[in-house]
Each structure stands twice: as structure tokens, then as C-alpha cells.
């Protein structure tokens, strides 16, 4: 078989996109709780205060908080032996600055992890997945404030101690490299103090974003080092939004542009977290963009001491880049690019490129030589019920099948070290980029709609039964 007998098969979610119960049992507001709904045509907004008569989809989401037993049982029915989820920081520390953690929040995740383990499902926990206490945005402009490093450490030490016997695999920050993009202001660095408006129009300061990124690097390295010293059974990983960039043509200018894009989007952050140092071109990049990254003594040393054990990434699509000014553009995850004439696209304009996943796996493994895991991959689509009342999502099956086939080739033919696969949104949830329910990824349909209505009932799609066979055959039956 291509995949090892202990290969991790499962699915991925994020607390702020599916938990709901946003103010229940002592939870405080996070950045995501201040985001309204939106659509492909109309961007969601972030508001400095909650507005009346406005839908904030994370407030209820799909209410995993009250459905976790049912949902985890469905994951187990599919055959999951791994479930990627995140902890909501504001369930543990509602403002981020409390001296003692919120016991009700800790107890909730105890129940979730116990339920997973009772079904022989290994939790893979993202510590910070596109949310932080909104109080830290108001006080420190999010991660631009160095104070957040110590607050994040406190949070991590609490959850490490509490769940040391229940969780082995941890990821520090979700898609940390989204902080290199303007959209990262909201999603990752949370540098949005006082702003109300569309998330696509947040006043952008590269200085604030890259300073915030440095603070996230230091925070990640500190907690990785701490975990290695105190909990040797833990495995710590990074998480990168991997955007494969091809040159639009074979013009040398396009080749250089693609190389530049791969460096800035993909390697800048992972070099720090895997190699323990900024890449050689970082100082030139800072100079060219007028950035002054403030560091304190010991920062560079801790980056070297807190490198991760394995590399994880999301892969949805690829982009073309080049110097052409008349080329058509296409939408994408975090960033857009030039349209590749050889690829089809999803309903949301994301280009579908399974072979790009094989290419990416080889590029990453060639650079770092540590175990890898694809922790997000999937097709957002407008699922509609057929005459029989069922979801026949053959398009999703086709998408996932083609990507798993390329993973197999990367392992069998190329020799990469791949430890697991958790496709995104294994159950329908709120879209991070658009704030809508209509963009569905799940194997499980949730009766919840863009206007906030729906009874939250769960139904198996065709892809549910297909993925069940994939897992039971360890990827041989596709």
C-alpha cells in the first residue's frame, strides 16, 4: 500500500467556524465573533462593536458545542482515526488577560477529547485558528503588540497541562503565512483595532503585519520549546497556506516572478518555523518595503530552539503569476492570481489542480525533509438536494479522488514522507473568507443557511460513503 498502516485519515474544522455558543459558559468575544456574514459577491465585514439586527454567523455556526457527540459519532462512522479541530482561545481566557482560566471552557474540550478517544480518534489540535480575544485587538492591535506573546504562552501552558494525556499532535498557528497578505489583517494578525467595514478594505500597514508575524514566530517557538522540554510525548507542527505559483509563460521575467511569489508566500514563514531562522532574502525584503522589524535580545535564538517536528499545510489550488498585464485573473484562497488556461475552477473561481499537490509535496519535502501532513484540502460547492432529498456530490468525490491519487504518487513514486490527510470542512461550516454557509465542503450536510435559518439537522452526503471506503481501504479504493 502507498500509505503506511498508521496513516492518519480524518477531517478538519475550526472552532470559530462550527462551534457556535459564542457567549456560552463564560466564553468571550473573539475576532471572528465580530465578523458579519457575506457572500462571494459581497465581502463580510468586521465591526468594532456588535451591530443590532446584523447576522454574525460564528455566534451559532453549526452549534458543534451542543452537537459534538453526534458529530464525532458520524466521523467515527466514516472511519476517522484523526480529527483536526481547534481550541477557542476565548473559551479558556475570555479576554486573554485573566489570571486564571475559565473552567467551563476547559471542561468542554475535556468532553470533546474524551468523546474522540472513545471512538479511537486522535485529536490534532490547532491552538490558534484565525481567532484571538477581541479584547487584545482593542488593547494591543492584535499581534502587533508584543504583550500577546506572553499571553499566548500562558494559554498554551494551561491547555498543554490540562490535555497532556489526551492530545499528542499540536499546531501552533493556522495558515500563519496569511499574515503576509492584506486579508491576514483580519484572519491572522488581527491588526484591525477600531476598524469597521469590509474585510477586503482594512487599512493596511505592512509594518504592523510583519511585526505581528515576528511576534507570532517568537510565540510559536517559545511554546514549541516549552512543550519539548515538559511534554516529550507531544509532536508540534506548523501550518502553512500553501499557494503553488507557476510562471504564466516561459519568459524569464515570469520565472523570476513565480520564484519571488513562492518565497514571499510560502517559504518566508516556514523557513522560520522549520529551519529556525529568517531566510537569506528577508533583510533585503524588509529594506525594499521600508520595514523595521523590532526584535528583542534572544528572539533569534528562540526561533532556532523552537523548531517544529512536522510540516502541515492547506492545499486547494494553484495560481499563475507573471508580468503580463492583459491576462485574466482568477479568485483564490487568501490571494488571487492569473488564470491558468489548462485548469478548471470551482464555483468560487478557485482553480482545481490535483497535480499541483504532488508538485507541492515534493517541493516542501525537498526543502525540509521532515514528515508532512495535508491538513486542509477540499471543494467548496453549492450543494443542492436531488429529487430524492439526498446530496449527490459526485463533483466533490471527483475532486478529492484526484488529489488523493496525486498524494499516492508523491509517496509511491517520489518517496515523500506523508503522515496524514484531513480534508477541510468534513462537516458543513461557515466559510472563513466569505462568512457564508452556501459554500459547503462537508461530507455531512448541515441544515443551516445564509440567512441564519435552519434546524441544524445533519445528513450524510454521497461523499460520506465514498470517503468511508477510502479510509477502510487505506486509500486503495478510490
Mind summarizing the main beta sheet?
8 strands, parallel, barrel
Q: What coarse outline follows from CA principal-axis ratios?
A: globular
* Gyration radius from CA atoms, angstroms: 21 Å
Overall average pLDDT: 97
How many angstroms separate the termini?
13 Å
The secondary structure category is alpha/beta
Structural notes for this entry:
The chain is of the alpha/beta class and 478 residues long. It has 14 helices and 18 strands. Strands 1-3-4-5-7-9-15-16 form an eight-stranded parallel β-barrel, surrounded by four helices. A two-stranded antiparallel sheet has the order 2-6. A two-stranded parallel sheet has the order 8-10. Helix 13 links the parallel strand 15 and strand 16. Helix 6 (147-162) packs parallel to helix 8 (206-230) and helix 8 (206-230) crosses helix 11. The radius of gyration is 21 Å and the shape is globular. The model has no long low-confidence stretch (mean pLDDT 97).
Can you give keywords for this protein?
478 residues; alpha/beta; 14 helices; eight-stranded parallel beta barrel; 18 strands; GH_1_N_CS; single chain
List the helices and strands and how they pair.
Layout: E1 8-12, H1 15-18, E2 45-46, H2 64-78, E3 82-86, H3 89-92, H4 103-118, E4 122-128, H5 134-140, H6 147-162, E5 169-173, H7 184-187, E6 197-198, H8 206-230, E7 235-241, E8 244-247, H9 252-275, H10 282-288, H11 299-305, E9 310-314, E10 318-321, E11 329-330, E12 337-338, E13 344-345, E14 351-352, H12 354-368, E15 372-376, H13 394-412, E16 418-421, E17 444-446, E18 458-460, H14 462-472
GO cellular component, one term: cytosol
Enzyme class: hydrolase
Family: Belongs to the glycosyl hydrolase 1 family.
Amino acid at each position: 500500500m502507498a500509505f503506511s498502516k498508521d496513516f492518519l485519515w480524518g477531517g478538519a474544522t475550526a472552532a470559530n467556524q462550527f462551534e457556535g455558543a459564542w457567549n456560552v459558559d463564560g466564553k468571550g468575544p473573539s475576532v471572528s465573533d465580530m465578523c458579519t456574514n457575506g457572500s462571494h459577491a459581497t465581502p463580510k465585514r468586521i465591526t468594532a462593536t456588535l451591530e443590532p439586527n446584523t447576522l454574525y454567523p460564528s455566534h451559532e455556526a453549526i452549534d458543534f458545542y451542543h452537537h459534538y457527540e453526534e458529530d464525532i459519532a458520524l466521523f467515527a462512522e466514516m472511519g476517522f482515526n484523526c480529527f483536526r479541530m481547534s481550541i477557542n482561545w476565548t473559551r479558556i481566557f475570555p479576554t486573554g488577560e485573566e489570571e486564571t482560566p475559565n473552567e467551563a471552557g476547559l471542561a468542554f474540550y475535556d468532553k470533546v477529547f474524551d468523546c474522540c478517544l472513545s471512538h479511537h480518534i486522535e485529536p490534532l489540535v490547532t491552538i490558534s485558528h484565525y481567532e484571538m480575544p477581541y479584547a487584545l485587538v482593542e488593547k494591543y492591535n492584535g499581534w502587533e503588540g508584543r504583550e500577546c506573546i506572553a499571553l499566548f504562552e500562558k494559554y498554551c501552558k494551561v491547555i498543554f497541562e490540562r490535555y497532556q494525556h489526551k492530545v499528542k499532535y499540536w499546531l501552533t498557528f493556522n495558515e500563519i503565512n496569511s499574515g503576509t497578505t492584506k486579508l491576514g489583517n483580519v484572519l491572522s494578525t488581527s491588526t484591525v483595532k477600531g476598524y469597521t467595514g469590509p474585510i477586503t478594505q482594512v487599512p493596511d500597514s505592512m509594518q504592523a503585519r510583519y511585526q505581528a508575524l515576528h511576534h507570532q514566530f517568537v510565540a510559536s517557538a517559545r511554546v514549541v520549546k516549552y512543550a519539548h522540554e515538559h511534554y516529550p510525548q507531544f509532536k508540534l507542527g506548523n501550518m502553512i497556506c500553501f499557494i503553488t505559483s507557476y510562471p504564466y509563460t516561459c519568459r524569464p521575467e515570469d520565472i523570476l516572478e513565480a520564484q519571488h511569489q513562492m518565497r514571499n508566500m510560502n517559504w518566508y514563514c516556514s523557513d522560520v518555523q522549520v529551519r529556525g531562522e529568517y531566510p537569506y532574502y528577508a533583510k533585503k525584503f524588509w529594506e525594499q518595503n521600508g520595514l523595521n522589524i523590532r526584535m528583542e535580545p534572544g528572539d533569534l535564538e528562540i526561533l532556532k530552539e523552537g523548531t517544529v517536528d512536522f510540516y502541515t499545510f492547506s492545499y486547494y489550488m494553484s495560481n499563475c503569476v507573471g508580468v503580463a498585464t492583459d491576462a485574466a485573473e482568477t479568485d483564490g484562497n487568501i490571494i488571487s492570481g492569473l488564470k491558468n488556461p489548462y485548469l478548471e475552477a470551482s464555483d468560487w473561481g478557485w482553480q482545481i489542480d490535483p497535480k499541483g499537490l504532488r508538485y507541492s509535496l515534493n517541493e516542501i519535502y525537498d526543502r525540509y525533509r521532515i514528515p508532512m501532513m495535508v491538513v486542509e484540502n477540499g471543494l467548496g460547492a453549492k450543494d443542492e438536494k436531488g429529487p430524492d432529498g439526498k446530496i449527490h456530490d459526485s463533483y466533490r468525490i471527483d475532486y478529492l479522488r484526484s488529489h488523493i491519487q496525486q498524494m499516492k504518487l508523491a509517496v509511491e513514486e517520489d518517496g515523500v514522507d506523508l503522515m496524514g490527510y484531513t480534508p477541510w470542512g468534513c462537516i458543513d461550516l461557515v466559510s472563513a473568507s466569505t462568512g457564508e454557509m452556501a459554500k459547503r465542503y462537508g461530507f455531512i450536510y448541515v441544515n443551516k443557511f445564509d440567512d441564519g435559518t435552519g434546524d441544524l439537522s445533519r445528513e450524510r452526503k454521497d461523499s460520506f460513503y465514498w470517503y468511508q471506503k477510502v479510509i477502510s481501504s487505506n486509500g486503495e479504493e478510490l
